[in-house]
Task: inverse folding
């Protein structure tokens, strides 16, 4: 298995909803990442987990809550989002010491109504 | 701070022809990586090619090659024998060697259309 799998592919939620995005890889990668990509913009880094510990939080609002329950799984919990949070959320992974070899998933397209 | 500039918002090329996408960057670092990523309509970010700054030899991957000019801080992508499947947004990106994990600095992208 040589890919990063993200579910769901599409998600529509209201501002009062709680939802979660899921990312999974079975390549033994020990670093996992969340990026946010607004329409017609490049991706922006949100969070980095290294060996299941949060190592980077790029000043992301607390309505986004990441979780890394094990080395293969990364979640992004969403609560009380705003319409401007609508975006493509990309997950990526890499071997712990080979950060230059990022492998991206296909993303979750999120719409907040 | 590092910056990446892609000066061509959109380009088009005829199938089977060659096209070059431009990228310049600014950094005071000496060791770093440069990347070209492709994002087709499916939205997945796909690595096209990677260049390590300490290597003078230009990277190549099949029909894709780069012209890396370190002194000029230029990193262009050449696509030979363009195919319809090459239609995508192309992002140039920079990563400092030994820097924060995953901290890719992206350009704004070039939308490439390959016409039959």
Result:
């Amino acid at each position: 298995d040589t890919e990063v799998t993200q579910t769901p592919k599409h998600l529509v939620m209201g501002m009062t909803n709680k939802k979660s995005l899921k990312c999974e890889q079975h390549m033994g990668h020990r670093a996992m990442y969340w990026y946010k990509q607004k329409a017609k913009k490049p991706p922006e880094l949100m969070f980095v987990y290294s060996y299941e510990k949060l190592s980077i939080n790029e000043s992301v609002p607390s309505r986004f809550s990441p979780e890394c329950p094990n080395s293969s799984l990364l979640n992004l919990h969403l609560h009380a989002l705003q319409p401007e949070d609508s975006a493509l959320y990309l997950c990526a992974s890499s071997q712990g010491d080979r950060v230059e070899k990022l492998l991206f998933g296909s993303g979750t397209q999120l719409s907040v109504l | 701070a590092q910056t990446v500039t892609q000066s061509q918002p959109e380009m088009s090329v005829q199938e089977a022809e060659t096209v070059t996408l431009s990228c310049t960057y600014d950094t005071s670092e000496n060791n770093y990586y440069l990347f070209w990523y492709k994002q087709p309509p499916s939205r997945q970010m796909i690595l096209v090619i990677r260049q390590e700054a300490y290597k003078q030899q230009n990277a190549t991957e099949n029909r894709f090659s780069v012209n890396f000019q370190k002194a000029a801080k230029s990193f262009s992508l050449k696509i030979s024998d363009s195919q319809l499947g090459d239609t995508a947004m192309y992002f140039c990106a920079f990563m400092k060697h030994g820097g924060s994990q995953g901290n890719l600095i992206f350009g704004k992208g070039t939308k490439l259309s390959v016409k039959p």
The radius of gyration of chain A is 13 Å. The mean pLDDT of chain A is 92.
